[in-house]
Design brief:
The complex is a heterodimer of chains A (471) and B (417).
Chain A lengths: L1 H33 L1 E2 L2 E2 L1 H11 L6 H10 L1 H9 L26 H15 L3 H13 L4 H4 L2 H13 L5 H9 L2 H6 L12 H9 L10 H10 L3 E3 L5 E3 L9 E3 L2 E3 L3 H9 L2 H15 L6 H13 L4 H9 L17 H12 L5 H11 L21 H9 L17 H4 L7 H11 L6 H11 L5 H14 L1 H4 L2
Antiparallel strand pairs in A: 1-2, 3-4, 5-6
Chain B lengths: L1 H15 L32 E7 L9 E2 L4 H6 L11 E2 L5 E2 L4 H8 L3 E8 L7 H10 L10 H12 L5 E4 L15 E3 L18 H15 L6 H26 L10 H13 L7 E6 L8 H25 L6 E7 L19 E7 L5 E3 L17 E2 H13 L3 H5 L11
Parallel strand pairs in B: 1-8, 1-9, 5-11, 5-12, 6-7, 6-8
Antiparallel strand pairs in B: 2-4, 3-4, 5-10, 9-10
Chain lengths: 471, 417
């Protein structure tokens, strides 16, 4: 079979590839140019862009709702989410959780509960920022070993997702999972542990370059005194704390954890570092100093209000500039949550969590205190196979009636329809695949006679295109 | 037609993954031009395999290669010190941690080298920074990408099929070059495009995805380095998937791997090393060495799995007649503080021992044993710059010019016979 068709196939493929390449280069140019109006995104694509960054995409109904609001109202709606009814999303996982009874198996129930919140919430920014803080204060079950404590931390991060940074930093300092993760637990004046003192600066606040090894040692003394109790709460035990004088980042005093957190949260370098991270997460990586200084000022003027900074970023010209458009790679969680949310399709818990892990992102188990990679860091051969294969697990409307993956649309009257393929593709990527790419998908589906198979073909090929993988 | 197109696309994919004229991926300042490998030093370098085991978190080298002859060891390690009677003694001054029997056997059978006090000047105690330094082979970020990625850049100029594989997890920066990237394999079963139910052929969607990637590789990366990297990863992956599947079916082993994730990864490493994939570089990480508290049991378990995993991999390579083609090396981003802390653990330190195992390796201690009293801010001083060892691995084992990869010549520390 190979021998008989090989030569013909090669020649045909060569021809089609060459002609395709020429078309697609132009198609890319056209695609990006038509999305812009003098360097800014057109309103019609600014909303899908906003929903990808401030959430996990949207189904066509939800997208239309935000389109009707207009961009600025949509931002305010997303940012002031406390007023939105979210009662249909389970407030806690469907299992009984307690510290002393926390089995490792509970972890999957918690991970899935969170994934489903991202998919179903009416407050997408709340979940998006919870994910941001989970990555920023990266804590992993691999060392904490108690799913209940990971859940407690997750609830804390969600409750403060757009809160004040000083409160976040103080809360995480005494968070039981964090105390275990970075060895604050049982660090005492007799032998201060440097782990938290180093990472609270390097990763959580000022970043590298400001502090010295002496600051790490002084900070370690100031953070002594915490213990995790037998009931999973934490306490500050005065008898274990080092009340002596310390010199920390140029200031001297009998500093305790609150004092150190005050110094770090109000430090201008923290403001700069944090807005860099927030801007890169929401808009695009490597912003200019001029851009950052605007948002650092918002942070300082608002005494560290994350809500103010996030709102300012989302409403900025930079957020709607061509620099921001598709400038990121979807993390595995974003890739899966967006697919499920935009299509209202379901997929099995175990297989989805497996896929996420093989893609490189296990919720509540980041690889290190530095969190997960971003951009290029998500791209490798194992993760691309997982991204190509996951869509096969998503259910069509024949398996789950709520799903918008409707074989009846893709195969009206039993025959594949290019229009139907286009509609399905647009549900996943509302900005619209460029015509040459859409044609590849349509041509492939036209070889199918089975409506379910053909629908999954259109789904996986759209999700395999660079347009869907980018964010 | 599908099969023919598929074969053609696979051929293209191999080329696309190999041709250095693809737009280099940008990681910052570029000072190094990808250039063809120079004349190889060892005539059989083309059959050589290098397995790198990264000990993530900073391994306590002082309790790994234990300087038990120094009184300061017992003074600074009140709860963590190992007694001479427990140690696997190398000489009257140093001994191996008792759970490293596998490595001790390799040392005794003249297949393991121990480099002591490996580090660099002005050590950085940040996990992130020091990992970056070891992975890039550069102290000042003047060299972009990882040292083995730049090796790939150079080696693929001479042999486009040069393969580097990371086992498990996302591709580490080490295997990322300026234009070339290694592949990453976690599970043999999952390393392929599953056929879509109802497709005309089993490979219909693989063909279509390859088609989209080929298009994107040549056109779209002009718009986005992200797209270029994504599509190259897809093409490299599908090009390798058949070979990888064969590796899964042909492998048999008599070696005893530890029954844990690391053991499984080392076994997969042996499976791929002895397959037609014939990777030049294999990369495996063992994490968990950041032992700030209650170190003793944790480190013992980690060193045990490390040692038996290396021994099992080496046995499989020996059984396949490949002992003389095999070099295994370890590294960690740093060692740990001489003085233990108040939590029966150790904080971040500096220089550390590096192990090298292989049929052509000469068993010995290399470099002098670090002093536990002549310290720099509480940490031992390094004796061997890690790049002096990298240089030997590149020149003498991998057969590329180390100066091309490392940006300059170093005095080599060679462990080969």
């Amino acid at each position: 079979m190979v021998g008989a068709l090989g030569a013909v196939g090669t020649a045909a493929a060569l021809y089609s590839l060459n002609s395709f390449n020429v078309v697609s280069l132009q198609a890319f140019t056209d695609f990006f140019q038509e999305k812009q109006v003098s360097g800014q995104m057109a309103e019609s694509i600014a909303i899908p862009h906003l929903l990808r960054r401030a959430g996990f995409g949207a189904d066509p109904h939800e997208l239309a709702m935000y389109q009707r609001m207009g961009f600025e109202t949509a931002v305010n709606h997303l940012v002031n989410y406390e007023t939105l009814d979210n009662s249909w999303v389970p407030a806690r996982p469907g299992i009984v959780l307690s510290y002393t009874n926390s089995a490792y198996d509970d972890l999957e129930a918690i991970q899935w509960w969170w994934m489903m919140r991202m998919v179903n919430t009416s407050r997408p920014l709340e979940e998006k920022m919870t994910l941001f803080w989970h990555n920023h204060f990266a804590t992993a079950i691999s060392k904490v070993e108690n799913p209940y404590l990971m859940y407690v931390q997750n609830r804390f991060l969600r409750a403060n997702a757009l809160g004040n940074f000083r409160d976040l930093l103080m809360g995480i300092t005494s968070d039981p999972a964090m105390l275990i993760w970075l060895d604050g637990n049982y660090s005492s004046k007799d032998g201060p542990n440097e782990n938290y003192a180093r990472e609270v600066m390097e990763v959580f606040s000022t970043g590298r370059g400001l502090y010295t090894e002496d600051d790490v040692k002084a900070g370690a003394r100031a953070f002594t005194g915490y213990v995790v109790n037998d009931d999973g709460t934490s306490s500050f035990v005065p008898g274990r704390h080092d009340y002596g004088s310390k010199t920390f980042l140029g200031e001297t005093g009998n500093f305790d954890p609150e004092d150190i957190v005050d110094i770090l949260a109000s430090h201008p370098v923290t403001a700069w570092n944090l807005v860099t991270e927030l801007f890169s997460f929401l808009a695009y990586p490597n912003p200019s100093p001029e851009t950052l200084s605007k948002f650092a000022k918002v942070y300082t003027d608002s005494n560290g209000s994350i809500r103010s900074v996030v709102q300012a970023i989302l409403l900025s010209d930079e957020f709607r500039s061509s620099d921001a458009y598709l400038a990121q790679v979807k993390s595995p969680v974003e890739f899966v949550a967006t697919a499920l949310r935009s299509t209202r399709a379901t997929a099995g818990q175990d297989s989805t969590l497996d896929s996420l892990s093989y893609m490189g992102q296990t919720l509540l188990d980041p690889p290190t205190v530095f969190g997960w990679p971003s951009g290029m860091g998500w791209i490798d051969s194992t993760s691309v196979f997982e991204r190509y294969n996951f869509p096969l697990a998503m259910r069509t409307s024949q398996e789950d009636s709520a799903s918008l993956l409707d074989p009846g649309v893709v195969f009206p009257s039993g025959q594949p329809s290019s229009t139907g393929v286009g509609a399905l593709s647009n549900t996943l990527f509302p900005d619209g695949l460029p015509q040459p790419f859409l044609k590849v998908v349509q041509d492939s589906v036209s070889d199918f006679s089975d409506p379910i198979g053909g629908t999954k073909d259109a789904l996986r090929l759209t999700m395999a295109s660079p347009f869907y993988v980018l964010n | 037609m599908n099969l023919g197109r598929r074969a053609f696309l696979k051929q293209l994919a191999v080329q696309a993954g190999a041709v250095p004229s693809l737009t280099p991926l940008s990681y910052g300042p570029t000072v190094l031009e990808a250039s063809p490998g120079t004349s190889s030093v060892l005539t059989d370098a083309k059959n050589h395999t290098l397995l790198v085991v990264q000990l993530g978190g900073g391994n306590d080298g002082i309790n790994t290669v234990v300087p038990y002859g120094q009184q300061a060891y017992y003074a600074s390690r009140p709860t963590l010190a190992l007694q001479p009677s427990e140690l696997l003694q190398i000489d009257g001054e140093v001994g191996l941690h008792p759970s490293m029997g596998g490595l001790m056997d390799l040392f005794n059978s003249h297949n393991a080298a121990i480099l002591q006090g490996v580090g660099y000047a002005n050590p950085n105690r940040s996990h992130f920074e020091s990992t970056l330094i070891w992975e890039s082979g550069s102290k000042d970020e003047s060299l972009a990408g990882g040292w083995l990625g730049r090796y790939l850049d150079a080696a693929r100029g001479a042999d486009p099929k040069t393969t580097a594989v990371n086992i498990g997890g996302l591709l580490p920066m080490t295997l990322t070059g300026l234009s070339q990237r290694g592949i990453s394999i976690d599970s043999l079963d999952r390393f392929r495009i599953f056929p879509t139910p109802g497709a005309g052929t089993d490979t219909q969607d693989e063909d279509t995805i390859n088609l989209m990637n080929e298009v994107a590789c040549t056109a779209c990366q002009e718009y986005s380095a992200l797209v270029g990297a994504m599509m190259q990863a897809g093409l490299n992956a599908t090009a390798a998937s058949d070979t990888v599947a064969q590796a899964a079916s042909n492998f048999k082993t008599n070696a005893k791997y530890p029954d844990d994730d690391f053991g499984n990864r080392m076994k997969l490493a042996a499976q791929l090393a002895t397959s037609n994939l014939n990777p030049k570089i294999i990369y495996v990480e063992l994490g968990g060495f950041d032992t700030h508290a209650n170190q003793k049991g944790q480190q013992a378990a980690l060193l045990s799995t490390l040692s038996s995993g290396i021994a099992a991999f080496y046995q499989d390579m020996s059984d396949a007649g490949r002992a003389n083609d095999t070099l295994i090396m370890t590294f960690s981003e740093f060692g740990r503080r001489v003085q233990e802390n108040g939590n029966r653990g150790t904080d971040h330190g500096t220089a550390e021992p590096v192990f090298a195992v292989g049929g052509k390796v000469s068993s010995s201690l290399y470099g002098s044993t670090p002093s536990l009293t002549d310290l720099d801010e509480g940490d031992i001083k390094y004796g061997i710059d890690f790049r002096e060892f990298y240089a030997s691995v590149l020149d003498d084992w991998l057969g590329v010019d180390s100066a091309v990869v490392l940006g300059q010549k170093y005095d080599k520390v060679s462990v080969f016979q």
